[in-house]
Design goal:
heterodimer; A: two-stranded antiparallel sheet; 12 helices; 74% helix; B: alpha/beta; D-Maltodextrin-Binding Protein, domain 2; 32% helix; 20% strand
């Protein structure tokens, strides 16, 4: 026999339904908030940057093709961002050359060659690397690394391309290691067992089975590490020497797009050409990291599908 | 001059505990921009206010900027301690730092560094928001641009510390920032002139060629608290901090607590 709903029960049902609606809406808003935020940031950067494109004395060819970055020149203001772009590419590239082999090695060791306590301790320490703030890294580059480099290499000055790349490599290492390790562990055990049953050594197993099996995940790890390196600001500002320069050796000081924005946005009067061009370099950076992240995303998805 | 401003602010907390002076750094351009925005009462600057900045301040706030001379600074040319060079002329500095300069090796200055591999000169300076950057560009480079590849560091202290660690470096910074590992060059206006070492006396007398005034800018008639602070800065107690931080105090007969109105062309 069904109880007849009295006033209190009816009220409770109504309350439960409506609060559930509110909570659901709230969660939905939270879910979409990142999309809204990204869209708002994009809108803001583009809005601040675009007016300079219509300025008669601004030339896109000069922006993309000239090294001459003289934003406050008395004689003729020039906004050539080529040196900054090459600086970013050089620092990121060299840092990848250092961090990818080291990170992959660490990931292989963690997932295949060690167990128990060693593994746990190593994992925690590597994750701890990711928790060090970037100013601290920059400070290490400026004070410790620069002296080591002057002592150990033919570099005339300790803050240079190699210093920035080393610091960035250390910073992107935790990202690369933990993602690559996840990818390696996701290779089904059946593959390992099959290889071992065929008499493969551990080295053959790693090289011919695990790395090919996890290649998409590893590539995604590398790309996300790259994204981290391209976007890093404070550490590279302090460690690279901050000189607009097309580097011809590892020991030349350089300046990156990010460091340039950090160093100059504070002084550029809001609304001036200099201010807008800095936002334009922000658009450029956004484009670069967007492409890298989309690529990583696609590779991870593709990896999941093919399995 | 951010270290001076900080020393003042900290000392003033003991003089007038009810007034809190907050200091933020980043270069003269940053301070002036904050003054125009209205987020600061006073802007310390080691260069003159530009006509465009004075106009922008008047437009944004309706008040005319007022300038207070609070001290002097000699811009020193630093090299590494082991560098045999003792003096330099403004002409040579221009050849070194300007975009069309022709000196890029120590041998071209007639200098042999202890390590024969070290011949390429590493040029060190401030980033373009620093008043020091603009002062040197105006006074020494005669408004020419700096050569690309010059290291632009964040602060005066960083410049000197980097030179102390870099045998091939030459750079400019306030003379108050000298540390053990560097040498301050004597500077001559042109070849044949007497090369003068940076010192408080040579700065006040004007014999040292690259000296400048340290300025504070405010807008309109200052509020009573700000006015009291400015008066304290120009008192003997406030001026004592210039010597402590390596700058040069204003001689008593030259002090003007009322400041000077900046001309704004409309």
């Amino acid at each position: 026999m069904k109880p007849i709903p009295d006033g209190a029960t009816r009220w409770r049902t109504w309350w439960v339904r409506s609060t559930e609606g509110v909570i659901e809406l709230w969660i939905r808003v939270c879910g979409f908030s990142s999309v809204i935020l990204v869209a708002a940031i994009l809108f803001f950067i583009f809005r601040e940057a675009f007016p300079v494109l219509r300025q008669p004395d601004f030339s896109m060819a000069e922006f993309l093709g000239s090294v001459e970055w003289y934003p406050t020149s008395v004689q003729r203001v020039r906004f050539g961002a080529l040196g900054l772009m090459v600086g970013t590419a050089a620092v990121t590239g060299v840092s990848l050359l250092l961090s990818v082999p080291a990170g992959l090695g660490a990931a292989i060791f963690l997932s295949e060659f060690c167990q128990g306590r060693t593994r746990e301790v190593l994992k925690v320490v590597i994750e701890l690397l990711a928790a060090i703030p970037s100013v601290v890294w920059g400070f290490v580059g400026l004070t410790v690394m620069s002296r080591v480099l002057v002592w150990a290499t033919p570099a005339a000055v300790g803050v240079n391309l190699l210093n920035g790349a080393l610091i960035l490599a250390l910073m992107s290492l935790p990202v690369i290691v933990s993602l690559a390790e996840d990818a390696l562990r996701a290779v089904p055990d059946a593959h390992r067992e099959a290889a071992e049953a065929l008499g493969a050594t551990r080295w053959q197993l790693t090289w011919r089975v695990l790395l090919p099996g996890a290649r998409r995940g590893i590539l995604a790890a590398v790309l996300l590490g790259t994204g981290r390196a391209v976007g890093e600001t404070m550490a590279v500002l302090m460690a690279t020497g901050n000189a607009v320069n097309i580097p011809t050796s590892l020991f030349d000081p350089v300046r990156t797009l990010t460091a340039n924005i950090a160093a100059e946005l504070g002084e550029a009067p809001a609304g001036s050409d200099h201010y807008r061009v800095l936002f334009l370099t922000g658009v450029l950076l956004f484009g670069i990291t967007l492409v890298i992240n989309l690529l990583a995303e696609r590779l991870v998805r593709g990896g999941a599908k093919s399995r | 001059m951010v270290n001076l401003a900080q020393a003042w602010a900290e000392a003033y907390a003991g003089v007038e505990p009810g007034v809190r002076v907050e200091v933020s750094g980043g270069g003269s351009g940053v301070g002036v921009a904050a003054l125009i925005r209205g987020s600061a009462d006073l802007a310390n600057s080691s260069r003159d206010l530009k006509a465009s900045e004075a106009e922008a301040a008047l437009k944004a706030t309706g008040k005319e900027p007022r300038e207070y001379v609070v001290g002097y600074d000699a811009l020193a040319i630093y090299v590494h301690r082991d560098n045999p060079l003792e003096s330099i002329t403004l002409e040579q500095l221009r050849e070194l730092f300007a975009v069309d300069g022709r000196i890029s090796r120590w041998s071209e200055l007639g200098v042999r560094l202890p390590n024969p591999r070290h011949d390429r000169i590493v040029r060190v300076g401030r980033q373009s928001s620093g008043g020091t950057f603009e002062f040197l560009r105006h006074r020494v480079l005669e408004d020419r641009d700096f050569r690309l590849g010059t290291l632009e560091l964040n602060g005066s202290k960083e410049v000197v510390e980097l030179i102390a660690n870099t045998p091939t470096a030459i750079g400019y910074s306030g003379m108050g920032y000298a540390v053990a590992g560097v040498k301050l060059l004597r500077v001559a206006e042109r070849v044949g002139d007497e090369a003068v070492a940076p010192s408080p006396e040579a700065t006040i007398s004007g014999r040292y060629p690259i000296a400048r005034s340290l300025l504070v800018y405010g807008l309109g008639e200052p509020r009573p608290e700000v006015k009291a602070y400015l008066a304290w800065i120009l008192s003997d107690a406030g001026q004592g901090w210039l010597t402590v931080t390596g700058f040069v105090p204003v001689p008593p007969e030259r002090r003007q607590p009322g400041g000077r109105l900046v001309e704004v062309s409309r």
